Each structure stands twice: as C-alpha cells, then as structure tokens.
C-alpha cells in the first residue's frame, strides 16, 4: 500500500505533469501497442493503431484523465475508480495481465517526460500507485 510519502510524491508529480497528461497518455498507449503487440486486439476497432493515430492519442488522454481522478481520490482509489472498475470487468473484459504492461509503458513515458527528475524514489511511488489502480480495475473480475 501507499505510504504518506508515496502519496506526496504522486501528487507532486501529477501537479507538474498534468498540463502534459494527454500527451503522456498518448505516448504510453502508442508504446503499449508497439512494444506489446498482443494488446492490439483490444483496440482492433480503431482505424489506425500507429503511434500518430488520433484514436490512440485520444484514448491515451482518457486513460490519463482517469489517473488524474485517482490522484484526486488517492486515499480511496477503489471508490474514485469504481465505475471504471465495473466497465473493465463486465464490459471490456481486459485480461488483467495487460494492466502491468500499460503500467510499464506509462513509467517509460513519465521517465521520458521528467528526465532526471524521475528519481528512483518517484519511480517507486508511481509503480506502486499504478499497481493500486490495476488492482482496483481488476477487483470485480471473477
Ligand atoms: Zn481502459 C476504456 C482507463 C487500462 C482497454 N479505459 C477506458 C476508458 C478509461 C480507461 C477512462 C474510457 C471509459 C469511458 O469512455 O467511459 N484503462 C484505464 C486506466 C487503465 C486502463 C486508468 C490503467 C491504468 N484499458 C486498460 C488496459 C487495456 C484497456 C491495460 C487493454 C490493453 N480501456 C480499454 C478499452 C477501452 C477502455 C478497449 C474502450 C475503448 C473504446 O473507446 O472503445
């Protein structure tokens, strides 16, 4: 679970990157389908899955929007993302292994954005936070 210090680091980084959130989300999603091509099946209804695809960019922006909500409700992520948890479990049926793959590409995109400011400590806090989000998005599966 997240320590108070982790939460502080997450909020601090979010304040810094939120103006670029859509861009970071687009980059993370573009990386996801290139680096882990098995994830493409979930987006097969998109006309274009290339890194410059407007649909990939728009979807990445939505994902980061939800992460922003999770940051705002960081003391109870399960409540902050409950609607999305239902959507992923009942409608989208995304295999939960994919949440780890997206967390990985998101960390890469954060690192590329923050450069040297992406310290090991911030890396750790965000890795834990993305694992909390993944757990929430998978908790309704059975
Ligand atoms: Zn998801 C959708 C978030 C992961 C797949 N998503 C979605 C949305 C959001 C999200 C916000 C929108 C909703 C509405 O519209 O209502 N996700 C998210 C997050 C995460 C995720 C936060 C983590 C972190 N997903 C994911 C993964 C996958 C997915 C991993 C796979 C691979 N999603 C998805 C899909 C969809 C979604 C497919 C639908 C899309 C369309 O548009 O169609």
Automatic annotation (TrEMBL):
Protein name as annotated: Hemoglobin embryonic subunit alpha-like
A GO term, aspect molecular function: haptoglobin binding
One Gene Ontology term from the biological process aspect of the record: hydrogen peroxide catabolic process
Domain of life the protein comes from: Eukaryota
Keywords: Heme, Iron, Metal-binding, Oxygen transport, Transport
Record keyword Cell wall biogenesis/degradation present: no
CDD domains per record: Hb-alpha-like
Annotated gene: HBZ1
Gene Ontology cellular-component terms listed: blood microparticle; haptoglobin-hemoglobin complex; hemoglobin complex
InterPro entries assigned to the protein according to its UniProt record, in alphabetical order: Globin (IPR000971), Globin-like_sf (IPR009050), Globin/Proto (IPR012292), Hemoglobin_a-typ (IPR002338), Hemoglobin_oxygen_transport (IPR050056)
Record domain Globin: where: 1-142
SUPFAM superfamilies documented for this protein: Globin-like
Species: Acipenser oxyrinchus oxyrinchus
Family listed: Belongs to the globin family.
Entry-linked Pfam families: Globin
Segments traversing the membrane: none
């Amino acid at each position: 679970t997240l320590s108070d210090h982790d939460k502080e680091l997450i909020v601090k980084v979010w304040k810094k990157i939120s103006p670029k959130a859509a861009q970071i989300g687009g980059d993370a999603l573009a990386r996801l389908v290139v680096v882990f091509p098995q994830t493409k099946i979930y987006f097969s209804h998109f006309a274009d899955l290339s890194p410059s695809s407007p649909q990939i960019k728009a979807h990445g922006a939505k994902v980061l929007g939800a992460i922003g909500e999770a940051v705002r409700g960081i003391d109870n992520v399960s409540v902050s993302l409950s609607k999305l948890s239902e959507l992923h479990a009942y409608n989208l049926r995304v295999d939960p292994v994919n949440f780890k793959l997206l967390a990985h590409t998101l960390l890469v995109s954060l690192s590329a954005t923050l450069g040297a400011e992406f310290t090991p400590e911030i890396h750790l806090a965000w890795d834990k936070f993305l694992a909390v989000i993944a757990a929430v998005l998978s908790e309704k599966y059975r």
